[in-house]
From TrEMBL, chain A:
Keywords: ATP-binding, Nucleotide-binding, Transport. This is ABC transporter ATP-binding protein. One of its GO terms (molecular function) is ATP binding. The keyword Nucleotide-binding applies. InterPro entries: AAA+_ATPase, ABC_transporter-like_ATP-bd, ABC_transporter-like_CS, ABC_Transporter_VariousFunc, P-loop_NTPase. CDD domains: ABC_DR_subfamily_A.
Automatic annotation (TrEMBL), chain B:
It comes from Jutongia hominis. The chain crosses the membrane at residues 32-54, 66-92, 113-142, 148-176, 188-204, 244-265, 311-331, 402-420, 426-450, 470-491, 497-518. This is ABC transporter permease. The keyword Oxidoreductase does not apply. The keyword Metal-binding does not apply. Keywords: Membrane, Transmembrane, Transmembrane helix. The lineage of its organism: Bacteria, Bacillati, Bacillota, Clostridia, Lachnospirales.
Amino acid sequence: MLKIERLTKIYGEKRAVDDLSLHIRPGEIYGFIGHNGAGKTTTIKACCGILNFEEGNIQIDGISVKENPLECKKKLAYIPDNPDLYDFMTGIRYLNFIADIFGVNANDRQERIHKYADMFELTQDLAQPISAYSHGMKQKLAIISALIHEPKLIIMDEPFVGLDPKASHLLKETMHELCATGTAIFFSTHVLEVAEKLCDKVAIIKEGRLICSGTMEEVKGDASLEEVFLEMEEK
Amino acid sequence: MTKILIKKQLMEVFSWIYQDKKTGKNRDKKGLLLYVFFYVFLFGFLAVIFYNMAASLCGPLVEDGFGWLYIALMGIVGMSLGVFGSVFNTFASLYQAKDNDLLLSLPLPTRSILIARLFGVYAMGLMYELLVMVPAMIVYFMHVSPDVSVVICCILIILLLSVFILTLSCVLGWIVAFVSSKLKNQKIITVLISLAFFAAYYYVCGSAGNMMQTLLLDPAGMADKVKGIAYPLYQMGLAAEGKWNAFLFFAFAVLVLFAVIYFILQKSFLALSIANKGNKKAVYVEKKAHTASIPRALLRKEVFRFTQSPIYMLNCGLGIVFILFAAVMLLVKKGTVDSLLMMFIGYEDRIALVATAAICMITTMNDMAAPSVSLEGKNIWILQVLPVSGWQVLKAKLGLQIIFNLIPTTFLIICVEWILKPAAVFVVLLPLTVVLFIIMMAAFGLTCNLKAPNLKWTNETVPVKQSMSVTAALFGGWIIVAAFCFIYYLLYKYFEVKALSFLAGLDVVLAVLCILLLKWLCKKGSNIFETLTNA
């Protein structure tokens, strides 16, 4: 579903991402971990078509992000680490705006808004302006808006930051449900315990270079993911 | 404690001098010097205007024995400028200050916070008042050869007047805070109050000439009016002549009024500061969803952006009010317009030309597209990650300006054509030219913004009021209209080109400009938008 081949992104003289390759298949939950500034967000933004890159190729469902970005964007949903949404809209207006852009029909959108807003306990706040939302509420709204068009690929940057424990738990459950329907999920996180429990596969990035990737068992073996990560960081 | 808070407040109020609002960083020495020089020049320029005004009033009034009336009238001007200049700051700094929650959570008495905030408002009002009162007093001293007692009285009057300005600003700020804490939609209140102020300002500016003439012809009549309506100002005028009993009366009136207002503010400050800011929780009621196409959804988003921001509306959409006002004035003042048309006997074809230029000039006051890219700010990622092209987004931004200009302008054009009754060919050419000009200006403003976007702002006044693109779109529009008028003048003078031919030629030029700008926006502009980043 998401194929990153030899991705390189350069800022000035710094190689923020260097020759990175990953392959996320349908139905997989793929964790992406690394220290601050390792290149996770840069990789994620490049996958979403927000950031140009110098070398390499990214394909979503077989379509190149560089050559046909609009077709790629139709298949994916992105949840940023800091959900800066339109403060001048109400929650429901924002969801309808996103649904309109993705061409979700009236019945489907109503059903999905109802389902996910109820699930994340945001229904009562949908008529409120987003400017009145807390960080967690904005995060929930960003998650609902990402699910509204049933994307084939969901890319998330630190999705659990700001969520309360219940919403975190619900998001994890939803991720499992989506994967069961063939949706691929690629997300970055600093919470290694979550990654360990949730992910089928994991990739560790350090200073822009991929230092380890594979199934959770392959990467961590008998140790914990935290131990493996810290050991690799020290090398 | 209060001293520290006052210092903080003054630093905040006058931060525009030493801080670049775009970057949030302090200006370097060179930048600071240039900035200070610019403002000294600007304030000096304004002071000269008020000096000339004072000079034309003072001589005749002092000679007729109405020196007190001169002081009272200049006091009214100073007061108006002080209140007008500081009232927008009052509501924001007294009740909507960003650090209200922080300060209220600290172990500070509410009184100290209020005093510090009032000091900021006072300083702002005093600054504007001095622009009028310093030149007014200089002129006054030149005419009356004052003794020490008069000079002391006049200085004290200036200070007392600033306290009165503070009182008036507080009353207005308090009313706005009180009303908006009771209302659901503060944005409408902000826009309406601002529009009322603008209307009052333009009314006073427009009728200032007549008022001056009436005053100089009949100073005694005006003196009676001032005595009757504003007795404390009469006493203030007398105080400036060195009458200490009048001064004491004026001082007493000002200080008692301020004490009352301060008492009310102190009682209600906490409640108003922590009020729910008018955002009563709206209850969500599930309704049947209505779908919209991508262009419609994007346009709707731009419309929300515009209508939900008073600053955006007032700075980039004020032309809508002016266009409608012009249309109504045309209908109401039909007689005056008819008499003006007599000036064009023998040059009837120029009527449509002048009307076209005038309409185009007003439409340049609507420049919503000019800051629209910058206004995306930290939200830019949303449109970039959605399956929409940059060109689709830019078309929506153009659409906002074109639609919000075309709707009122259509009404104005209908009024113009009904009142002026131009020749049949102009009935087509006039609207065509205006429409092409509106499209061209929208594309021009958007192009300017794409060339110099600013996505790193923290306050939306920066992209809306202080951006190069908005300045270029507004003044550029005026320059373009003036340039076209000048070109017509040259063409007529040297080649006797007729208005009809000129307007037809102008339409071709405008159409070409539109095509070129839209083509650039569609290709390069679209690419620029898609790769913008606020990182």
